[in-house]
């Protein structure tokens, strides 16, 4: 019996006619029956289709319509929280329901679902957390792992966890679990083999032809060449050719937005007006929406985006893509236990994805700010994260899910042995695991720590804060670090900014500075105007407060004294941080630069740090980034005497203060 659209939901609101029309014109709409039949027939189905063909928004709705929710919910996982939230909102609109009702989402620190939720969009990380409570994921009748080509650590681990859950549910005669893997065009055979030669369905997209242009000569400064290309095209092309420019990160996007605005002002009258739309994950969602809106007629839209617009979100109306050829990725520095954010060349697969964004509605053009020879030397595929990132969080999670030997876990691609071993070593130093021959178990502390959705280094710092009596402060610092940046930097006068920021600055470093900001924000009663006057990001600070509230709840469950404060004695706060971040210590050298303790990496203090000019002898850092030089970011001064107290086992190998 063909299901009726009207049966879909109880609480229906009218669906705008243009939304309905748009939905019915998507490529997946035409293959609906075939798709559903394949899914009914197979335990695992792999669906491949161009970005924008309607996979993420439509397929969950088809399944709901055909009664797949009878025995449980449909989970749809996304690697990025922003994608989970925006897609859930869109599907809520398309089904005429309020968000959190039939359609909900669940991302770290934010759960917008109720008992009536059937379609649950969530980050892959959240589903993994649920697997810690029930490794068979029995609340779900269908699990859709979306954007699988992204190959984040969490997605890869989830593939193994879901495969095991499906098998075990058969063995234990529980209701069957359907698994669907969705991806943009990528290495399909690999996924299919992993799932016992599961069938692959291709959805023909509506991709128009794309004209490809390469740079004639290789360019040293890709950012400069990108702006130059933007202006050359801006002079030549009609105003309704909107641009999508791929860049690497927030800072770069904000700087470029400023320089484009300045040059455009000088060209006033000679070229069409422009509307610049930044797009990156940390951007408040309201500001993100601007990129999806049509500009006034006669105005050119220029979207400056990170790789988020490669596949995660679709911007209609783009005719011209400008690809800088670079991407910011996290990768492990061999043998150090440290991850670093680094700008590097994209892969050929990514270059094709980026180009494809230009041909969604009509023929388009891509301008590659690199030569054809360079392109031919790009690697074919990006390296999956499990093969290049710190794995401590994941191993801790696998153990918490009940996987006894994570070394032998069924990975789609096995991480290198060295990465696994360094993760085990770090977890042992953090006091979270005990290894006995081949068997590895969580310690009591490890069990408690794994209930926090935090990097183990931060959860360790939290437990240390409990011992040292500064949980109140630690919760604020961790919440700020877990939010998406509290500073506003775009379109701001630098000098004014510095003078305002100095009000919050602490000589102890950035962590105490962030604490001061958070305390002042609370002191202002979370006032929007106050944030505006102080160049602080109101939404992200509210989000910080939300994160903090959730961490307090978890503290209550774990008997952590969440309101114990160290007052003005923030020394203990820095000591507690050191307990978690003991691998991230750097020592000043006579030559004026720093080296990381133990692994002897040469690093510099990032100019954004309040300690940039101070140059203390020892600092702990939160993050390593490479943009030309290697920089350490978010620092605190540490006293060398604290090091052996923070981790005697680790620091016994070093001779501190005897350079
Ligand atoms: O997953 P896939 O890339 O195949 O497509 P999708 O995310 O389901 O998007 C299909 C279409 O839905 C897009 O082309 C947009 O027109 C629309 N959409 C939207 O308007 N707002 C969103 N947040 C997501 C999608
Ligand atoms: Mg999608």
UniProtKB/TrEMBL annotation:
One of its GO terms (cellular component) is nucleolus. GO terms for biological process: positive regulation of transcription by RNA polymerase I. One of its GO terms (molecular function) is double-stranded RNA binding. Pfam families: DEAD, HA2_C, Helicase_C, OB_NTP_bind, WHD_HA2. Its EC number is 3.6.4.13. It catalyses: ATP + H2O = ADP + phosphate + H(+). It is an enzyme of class 3 (hydrolase). SMART domains: DEXDc, HA2, HELICc. Residues 36-204 form the Helicase ATP-binding domain. InterPro entries: DEAD-box_helicase_OB_fold (IPR011709), DEAD/DEAH_box_helicase_dom (IPR011545), DNA/RNA_helicase_DEAH_CS (IPR002464), HA2_WH (IPR048333), Helicase-assoc_dom (IPR007502), Helicase_ATP-bd (IPR014001), Helicase_C-like (IPR001650), P-loop_NTPase (IPR027417). This is RNA helicase.
């Amino acid at each position: 019996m063909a299901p009726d659209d009207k049966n879909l939901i109880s609480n229906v609101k009218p669906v705008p006619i243009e939304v309905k029309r748009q939905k019915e014109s998507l490529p997946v709409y035409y293959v609906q029956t075939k798709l559903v039949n394949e899914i009914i027939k197979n335990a695992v189905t792999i669906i491949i289709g161009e970005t924008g063909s309607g996979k993420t928004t439509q397929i969950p709705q088809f399944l709901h319509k055909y009664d797949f929710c009878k025995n449980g919910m449909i989970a749809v996982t996304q690697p990025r929280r922003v994608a989970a939230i925006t897609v859930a909102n869109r599907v809520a609109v398309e089904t005429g329901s309020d968000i959190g009702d039939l359609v909900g989402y669940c991302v770290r620190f934010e759960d917008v679902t109720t008992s009536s939720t059937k379609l649950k969009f969530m980050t892959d990380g959240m589903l993994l957390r649920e697997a810690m409570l029930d490794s068979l994921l029995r609340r779900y009748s269908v699990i859709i792992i979306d954007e699988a080509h992204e190959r984040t650590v969490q997605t890869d681990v989830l593939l193994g966890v879901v495969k095991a859950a499906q098998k075990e549910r058969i063995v234990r005669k529980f209701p069957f679990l359907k698994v669907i893997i969705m991806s943009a065009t990528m290495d399909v055979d690999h996924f299919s083999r992993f799932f016992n030669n599961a069938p692959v369905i291709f959805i023909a997209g509506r991709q128009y032809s794309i004209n490809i242009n390469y740079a004639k000569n290789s360019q040293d400064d890709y950012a400069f060449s990108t702006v130059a290309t933007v202006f050359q095209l801006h002079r030549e092309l009609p105003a309704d050719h909107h641009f999508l420019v791929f860049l690497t990160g927030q800072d770069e996007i904000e700087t470029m937005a400023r320089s484009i605005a300045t040059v455009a002002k000088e060209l006033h009258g000679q070229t069409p007006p422009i509307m610049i739309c930044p797009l990156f994950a940390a951007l408040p969602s309201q500001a993100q929406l601007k990129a999806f809106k049509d500009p006034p007629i006669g105005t050119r839209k220029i979207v400056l985006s990170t790789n988020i617009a490669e596949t995660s979100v679709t911007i209609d109306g783009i005719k011209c893509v400008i690809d800088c050829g670079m991407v910011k990725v996290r990768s492990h520095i061999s043998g150090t236990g440290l991850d670093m954010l680094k700008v590097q060349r994209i892969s050929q697969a990514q270059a094709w994805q980026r180009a494809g964004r230009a041909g969604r509605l009509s023929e388009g053009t891509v301008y590659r700010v690199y030569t054809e020879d360079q392109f031919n030397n790009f690697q074919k595929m990006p390296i999956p994260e499990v093969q290049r990132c710190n794995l401590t969080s994941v191993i801790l999670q696998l153990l918490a899910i009940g996987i006894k030997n994570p070394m032998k876990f069924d990975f789609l691609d096995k991480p290198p042995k060295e990465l696994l071993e360094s993760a085990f070593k770090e977890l042992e130093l953090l006091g979270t695991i005990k290894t006995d021959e081949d068997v590895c178990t969580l310690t009591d502390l490890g069990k408690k720590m794994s209930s926090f959705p935090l990097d183990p280094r931060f959860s360790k710092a939290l437990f240390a804060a409990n011992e040292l009596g500064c949980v109140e402060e630690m919760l604020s610092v961790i919440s700020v670090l877990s939010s998406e940046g509290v500073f506003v930097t775009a379109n701001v006068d630098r000098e004014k900014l510095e003078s305002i920021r100095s009000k919050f600055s602490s000589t102890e470093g950035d962590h105490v500075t962030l604490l001061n900001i958070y305390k002042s924000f609370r002191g202002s009663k979370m006032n929007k105007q106050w944030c505006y006057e102080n160049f602080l990001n109101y939404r992200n600070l509210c989000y910080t407060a939300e994160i903090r509230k959730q961490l307090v709840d978890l503290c209550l469950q774990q008997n952590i004294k969440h309101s114990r404060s160290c007052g003005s004695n923030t020394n203990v706060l820095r000591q507690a941080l050191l307990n978690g971040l003991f691998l991230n210590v750097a020592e000043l050298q006579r030559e004026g630069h720093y080296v990381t303790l133990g692994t002897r990496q040469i690093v510099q203090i990032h100019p954004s740090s309040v300690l940039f000019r101070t140059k203390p002898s020892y600092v702990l850092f939160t993050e390593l980034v490479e943009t030309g030089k290697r920089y350490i970011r978010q620092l605190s001064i540490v006293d060398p005497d604290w090091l052996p107290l923070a981790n005697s086992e680790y620091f016994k190998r070093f001779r501190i203060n005897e350079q």
